[in-house]
Amino acid sequence: MFRSHILVCGGTGCTSGNSMKIYEALVARIRKEGLENEVHVTKTGCFGLCALGPIMIVYPEGAFYSQVKVEDVDEIIDEHIIKGRIVTRLLYKETVGENGDIKALSDTNFYKKQHRVALRNCGVINPEKIEEYIAYDGYQALGKVLTEMTPQDVIDVISKSGLRGRGGAGFPTGRKWQFAKNSPGKKKYVCCNADEGDPGAFMDRSILEGDPHAVIEAMAIAAYAIGSDQGYIYVRAEYPIAVQRLTIAIKQAREYGLLGKNIFGTGFNFDLDIRLGAGAFVCGEETALMTSIEGHRGEPRPRPPFPAVKGLFGKPTILNNVETYANVAQIILKGADWFASMGTEKSRGTKVFALGGKIHNTGLVEIPMGTTMREIIYDIGGGCPNGKKFKAAQTGGPSGGCIPAHLIDTPIDYDNLLAIGSMMGSGGLIVMDEDNCMVDIAKFFLEFTVDESCGKCTACRIGTKRLYEMLCKVTDGTATMEDLDKMEELCYYIKENSLCGLGQTAPNPVLSTLHYFRDEYEAHVRDKRCPAGVCKKLLRYQIVADKCKGCTLCARNCPVGAITGSVKEPHVIDPEKCIKCGVCMEKCRFGAVIKA
Amino acid sequence: MAKKIDVPFNGTKEQEERLRKVLADLKIEHGGKGLMIASLQKAQEIYGYLPEAVQQIIADELGVSLAEVYGVATFYAQFSLYPKGQYKIGVCLGTACYVKGSGDVYKKVCETLKIEGGQCTDDLKFSLDATRCIGCCGLAPVMTINDDVYGKVTPEEVEGILAKYRD
User: Fold this and answer.
1) What letter would DSSP give residue B3?
2) Predicted confidence (pLDDT) per residue in A247-256, tens digit
3) ipTM metric
4) Residue A433's pLDDT is what?
5) Domain B87-163, what fold?
6) Which of A149, A445, A458, B167 has its CA 20 to 30 A from that of A213?
7) Which of B36, B41, B77 has the CB atom closest to A280's CB atom?
8) Which residues partner with A43 through β-bridges?
9) What number does CATH give the domain A130-339?
């Protein structure tokens, strides 16, 4: 028995902040003190509160240390572990009560409204040890399924739970499995989509890094339900930690006889392989993903035939997202009614969001469906930093749209988001404040889709390119009002004529910003002005004469000599010469340079 | 588009043997199907990039045309037909980093090194790529140089960071 447990976050956010060096330093120091049998140091998956990384937590006290540095390790060992005195200065402020006592993490604003189902083990267990997963009821669901349930029972439970695909489109999981089960054929495949392509989303990677066995177990359950013996996890090669932990997990599961032949002595066979994606957003589309597993260019193909009939290598196949799988074992163990009791009528359960952008608590949150955007952004996320005004939230990445401030009380579920012109997407949730230009954001997403369009169909290949060029005209100040109407027309054309989800949704960021922020577009076009001060070509730097002390610092730093004025007299910027580099504004100590 | 750099292919006999061995192992591991992407990944690990000579070896080993190999190699962002720099710089242009100003950081790197994304400096020291989300949005904007991660980078810090890697 250990008297203390130190959990160090080994998720990507904290690892990037050097948490593995902290882990090594802790282990070395514990060994030096001869405390190996008393204090247990372990690395876990993501705690979720990435903004405060690197994070570690010490039990039994539950001391939640944030923004820990390698240099802090000695103090933590000397004070906390040896003398039993908690290092208050490193504690996450929210966990310290008024009289200095420690509050449970679940009582802090960030965690209070969260409900962790898919992330239940992230930040709790060591993902590289199958024993820890098993200790948290791991592989019990698989055992139950194989020994007590028929394949049809499994599908019925999943259907009844109301679980829908967490990759974005929200197709009912049970129905998908049923189609594949009903398809004739001896060879069937189970695939997992871990090709998380939405730039700014990292839910799936965190699950794979924090709880890889949950995905493996669910895939085995799915295989039993549809009658498959082989699975593939298609994961981005850019996720080295996730790939490594998956590899370890698969190896351990094989050693324990939880993958391979005759699992639990029931005669059920199932094995799993990893396939590394090579960086193509379109491979998140199911037919493209399967083409890519087959080793080809990841281009989508028309449906039908649907993968459930003719998928990978021409065989019936199901493909589910990582987060979808992460819910499955819990549903089997706790029952369909338990799962269906969370969320809204048509969207059951919880959803994980990667909260990022202009928000205090960047990180990973899991909330019951039906939670409002306001709760996520203000209660959990802590609002926009620096007192800036919230402008919009973006969900669904390059396929989604913006949710403007006046719709912040919308309860989040699949149907509500679609109704307001966005979509659930895989779970990226980017917050924007008054300093973000919505036209620029739309342009950013279009640049992404132009880059990632596979080129197979004309509407997407050429349409997105033309749309991008029109957006450039807007941000350059050369567009006309007529162009805005043309843009809208082109958006609908691309949506209606593209083959796959990438093209069909690519215009969404433009349509939704045009809808909610048309005034910003019009300001660019009519007044040649970018209200947020982002679009460089429309920017004009000016010096406020009242504030200028005539220190000459700006004039000396201007790379093109555009600023003139004599000492102790207000200076002036020549707009003809100015290249809008912004150096003057950075250098000015009196806040006299403004963007107009 | 990547800048074409005239670097003669100087793969060694040893590298070629390694590649052929790896390909043979892959064939067994994959049961003979869906080999192409994994083969290119392994080849890029060995050579650092995928010049025509290497693509030809893969085409021969897998029994497909060079055109097919080229088709796959140019489809995916991970593969490079040109060598990368000794220091590979990645600036995250994921949405979370972008809204916090990583676009300006990216431009600053371009200006400082006088290269564009996908290109390499003439001395093969630095290459630059725009990366998608690397998953540490708490540190946005993020820049990576090989395995080093720099968080909350401002354009002003770029030159100082790069200076650490010059000679």
Assistant:
1) P
2) 999 999 999 9
3) 0.88
4) 95
5) Glutaredoxin (3.40.30)
6) A149
7) B77
8) A8
9) 3.40.50.11540
Q: What is the pLDDT of residues B92-102, one digit of tens each?
A: 998 889 989 99
- Predicted TM-score (pTM) of the model is 0.91
Cβ–Cβ gap A432/B99 under 8 Å: yes
Identify the CA nearest to A593 among candidates A533, A548, A557: A548
Predicted confidence at residue B2, as pLDDT, reads 47
* A350-433 CATH pick, 1.10.10.60, 3.10.20.600, 3.40.30.10, 3.90.1150.10: 3.10.20.600
B1: nearest CA in chain A? A451
State which residue of chain B sits closest to A396, comparing Cα positions.
Answer: B95
Q: How far apart are CA A260 and CA A230, in angstroms?
A: 9
**Closest residue of B to A283, CA-based?**
B76
Contacts of residue B97 in chain A, CB cutoff 8 Å? 200
Q: With beta carbons less than 8 A apart as the criterion, state whether A439 and A502 touch.
A: no
Fold of A438-526: de novo design (two linked rop proteins) (1.20.1440)
What residue has token string 């004070």? A79
Q: How many CB pairs under 8 A join A and B?
A: 137
Q: Are A77 and A63 in contact (CB under 8 A)?
A: no
Flag if B149 and A16 touch (Cβ within 8 Å). yes
Partner residue facing B133 (CB), from A52, A202, A441 = A202
Q: Would you give the DSSP letter of residue B94?
A: S
pLDDT at B4: 55
Q: Is the pLDDT of residue B1 over 50?
A: no
Instruction: Measure in Å the smallest separation between the Cα of B154 and chain A Cα atoms.
Output: 12
